[in-house]
């Protein structure tokens, strides 16, 4: 069988080209720390990596929303704690004023303090959250509560707070409406304190007004306590969601490393093997090309 001269040269030349390309590929893997540079190198792994990156980006957005919701709920709880403190003081004053042993002067002093507490509660009810929105305003409005010319305080918002998405198809409300926290109608803490302060200012028998105030303030404390409990439960749920995202992220990172990261020890071994074969092939090719026609005919 006759072997063409071109075949004698082409085969080792082609092999050297392949070995050089393989050495370059391995060196790139070592330099970048990435096993896969293009989709063609491992299509299945490349697609999985794309999916991992998308999931990581999605969870990053959910995690940011969870952090924001946690901050809003913490702010809600802190504000409601201040509301409770004000109501506790109002309860102490109402208890003292209802005994019938106070002078009119003392009752007027209590009325003034109750009015001051009512004003403080009005300020707390209009607290802005970290986004600059009314914390207890519900779904609409720039202000949660407004005060009329006659001093009447009323809720100016409407609806429920807009939920914050924290996962695929999952969301959480980061606050409560004013009507849930501060009451509405018969349990409206602003009306309760205002009515009792007016009764104390008027003088006379305030026993009935005092009993009504005590019942109303206790009911308001109950509403605030329920609102704090609800906010606390949602905050606890967010802690679980945050932990879930962290765990999922760690699992994805482990999968990503297995798919993408270069095993340096293995890569160095493969590179050394490839370079050894390449050098041997180059040496053989050099020896082959140095042969003369006389050498072939001998």
Give me the side-by-side strand order of the main sheet.
Answer: 1-2
Strand percentage: under 5%
Poorly predicted ranges: none
Largest sheet: 2 strands, antiparallel
For the terminal residues, how far apart are their CA atoms?
18 Å
The proportion of residues forming helix, as a percent range, comes to over 70%
Radius of gyration: 39 Å
Regarding quaternary structure, what we see is single chain
Number of strands: 4
Describe this structure as you would to a colleague.
The chain has 298 residues and is mainly alpha-helical. Helices cover 70% and strands 4% of the residues. It contains eight helices and four strands; from the N terminus they run αααββββααααα. The chain has helices spanning 5-32, 43-97, 104-125, 178-182, 189-202, 207-260, 264-289, 293-297, and strands at 145-147, 153-155, 164-167, 170-172. It has a two-stranded antiparallel sheet. The protein has a two-stranded antiparallel ribbon with strand order 3-4. α2 (43-97) packs antiparallel against α6 and α5 (189-202) runs antiparallel to α6 (207-260). It is rod-shaped.
Summarize the SSE layout with pairings.
Layout: H1 5-32, H2 43-97, H3 104-125, E1 145-147, E2 153-155, E3 164-167, E4 170-172, H4 178-182, H5 189-202, H6 207-260, H7 264-289, H8 293-297
Antiparallel strand pairs: 1-2, 3-4
Summarize this entry quickly:
This protein is mostly helical and 298 residues long.
What would the keywords be for this entry?
4% strand; mainly alpha; 8 helices; 298 residues; single chain
């Amino acid at each position: 069988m006759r072997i063409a001269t071109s075949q004698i040269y082409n085969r080792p030349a082609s092999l050297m080209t392949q070995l050089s390309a393989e050495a370059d590929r391995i060196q790139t893997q070592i330099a970048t720390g990435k096993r896969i540079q293009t989709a063609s190198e491992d299509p299945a792994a490349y697609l999985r990596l794309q999916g991992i990156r998308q999931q990581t980006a999605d969870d990053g957005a959910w995690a940011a929303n969870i952090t924001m919701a946690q901050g809003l709920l913490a702010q809600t709880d802190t504000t409601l704690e201040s509301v409770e403190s004000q109501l506790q003081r109002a309860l102490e004053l109402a208890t003292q004023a209802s005994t019938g042993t106070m002078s009119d002067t003392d009752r007027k002093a209590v009325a003034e303090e109750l009015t001051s507490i009512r004003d403080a509660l009005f300020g707390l009810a209009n607290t802005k959250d970290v986004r600059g929105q009314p914390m207890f305003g519900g779904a609409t409005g720039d202000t949660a509560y407004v005060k009329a010319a006659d001093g009447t305080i009323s809720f100016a918002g409407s609806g429920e707070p807009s939920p914050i998405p924290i996962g695929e198809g999952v969301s959480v409300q980061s606050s409560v409406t004013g009507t849930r926290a501060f009451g509405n109608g018969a349990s409206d803490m602003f009306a309760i304190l205002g009515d009792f302060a007016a009764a104390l200012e008027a003088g006379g028998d305030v026993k009935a007004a005092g009993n009504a105030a005590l019942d109303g303030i206790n009911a308001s404390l109950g509403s605030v306590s329920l609102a704090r409990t609800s906010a606390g439960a949602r905050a606890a749920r967010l802690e679980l969601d945050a932990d879930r995202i962290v765990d999922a992220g760690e699992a994805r990172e482990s999968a990503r490393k297995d798919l993408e990261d270069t095993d340096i020890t293995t890569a160095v071994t493969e590179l050394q093997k490839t370079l050894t074969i390449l050098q041997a092939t180059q040496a053989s090719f050099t020896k082959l090309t140095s042969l003369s026609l006389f050498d072939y005919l001998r």
